[in-house]
Amino acid sequence: MPYRMNPMRSILWGSLVAIGILVGLLVWNQRRPANAPVQEPLVVYCAAGLKTAVEAVAKDYEREQKTSVQIQYGGSGTLLSNLRVAQRGDVFIPADTSFVDLGNSNRLLAEVLPLARMSAVIVVAQGNPKNIRSIQDLLRDGVRVSLGNPDSVAIGTVARAALTRSGDWVALSARALVFKPTVNDVANDVKLGAVDAGIVWDVTVAQYPELEAVVVPELSTARSEVSVCVLQSSTQPTEALRFARYLSARDRGLRRFQESGFKVMPGDVWKSRPSVLFYSGSVNRLAAEPTLREFEQREGVDITRVYNGCGILTAQIRSGQRPDAYFACDVSFMDTVQAEFQPAVALAQTPLVLAVRKGNPKAISGLSDLTRTNLKVGLCQEDQSALGALSARLLRSVGLWDSVKSNLAVQAPTGDLLINQLRSGALDVALVYAANTSAVLDAVEVVRLTGPGTIAIQPYAVSRNSDHAQLMSRLQQALESKVSRDRFVSAGFQWQESTP
Fold first, then answer.
1. What is the CATH number of the domain that holds 106?
2. Residue 37 pLDDT more than 50?
3. pTM of this prediction?
């Protein structure tokens, strides 16, 4: 007879199993930190033509970082349309910058990191049985052509733009047998013999041993730059940025792109949490510091700051110190070390002013007053700071340098130290930046100066040798943001249009 368990015994065993599961869950919850977040999978929207490379990178990332990555593939335009509606997800990887521009115009994207380049070609079966050598050959009777949909897939958009310039698009689009939603669909049409030719990316052809590429001059401008974009909708932007940095790292994701035939962009060295060195003139500290803190938190990085007089900083750079980026007090102190950096971009400017004690008890109205007898004047040290060098240059230009030197009571490496001396009563007047005075206007007054040499311009530059040049370029973008601009203006700076 078959064995039958006693009903009461079944109930008892079931209860014991349930109790065991509950105890296990309680123990797991006790061991897990109370505030530990539950890691959600990263949701990635990726152009279908990039699947081979991105899928390989995602598997590497999941193995190394123990983070799940869910990827949805499709045409770049279709994915972007879905994003507009859904307003969810973490990362978007389109096949062309035109979709990055559209995403930005719709305020869907945050950070954008460059990955690789690819070019459009005609694709045919191995051996080129129809002897297709030009765009005109695609118009011959009996030649069946598949194209990507120009309104929803990057290869279609780019091909339409190039062939419109060459005057071939109207005729070719009229002869096309079919318009496909992804570049892979076009390649598969040719592979299966459903058509004789199509237009795809060069890297797509490399993934199909049954196919070959035909390079034609009409498509010479049909190139694409591939980028990975963090979405504004991401609820885990630091993890999304970490994945984006992994994709764009020259020793991680970009290797996979190279294996797939892409021409890759310069990338950073991979670090799960990078540490970078940031040099800055001390005058920038008050305005820049909140942005640096926010950047650290969002990117998941550590920034070592060195704020000092620019003369001291440039001396350290010339002696071999290698900051990842330098935010100078004035262009004159960027010029002396420019060879170590990529082209500098001017971000802000601040005028030189005379700072006096509240009420201006010495009735100082301009530079000429600094020569009066028994006046205690404060200047920055010429060889240690941009402010000191600019002050000396200004005073020499108006013929007052020797006279003012006789009244010199304090020399300091930074304008903030002069302000402290002024407030303590050790000085009657100090030649400083307007930005040095913005936080102490309850205790000091400002005498404005005009004329040549009274404006300092603050440039930012990324080191030519930084392992994290892309990261530091994004820091520049953060410093250029509207929130950052407002901070600089509140701190006594005037904002510059970002020009080299």
1. 3.40.190.10
2. no
3. 0.84
pLDDT greater than 50 at residue 22: no
Residue 101 and residue 235 in one domain: yes
| 252 within domain boundaries | yes
Nearest to 429 by CA among 350, 493, 369, 351: 369
If asked whether residues 331 and 418 sit together in one domain, one would say no
pLDDT at site 496: 74
Instruction: Give Dmax (Cα) for the chain.
Output: 121
Q: What percent of the chain clears pLDDT 70, i.e. is strictly above it?
A: 91
Is 375 found in the same domain as 433?
yes
**Mean pLDDT (whole number) for 55-67:** 96
- Tell me the per-residue pLDDT of 272-304, one tens digit each, with 9 for 90 and over: 999 999 999 999 999 999 999 999 999 999 999
Phi, psi of 24 (to 5 degrees): -60, -45
In the predicted structure, residue 31 carries a pLDDT above the cut 90: no
> Is residue 107 located within the same domain as residue 231?
yes
**Do 407 and 389 share a structural domain?**
yes
Q: Which domain holds residue 137?
A: 117-224
Q: Are residues 356 and 450 in the same domain?
A: yes
Mean pLDDT, range 426-448, rounded to an integer: 94
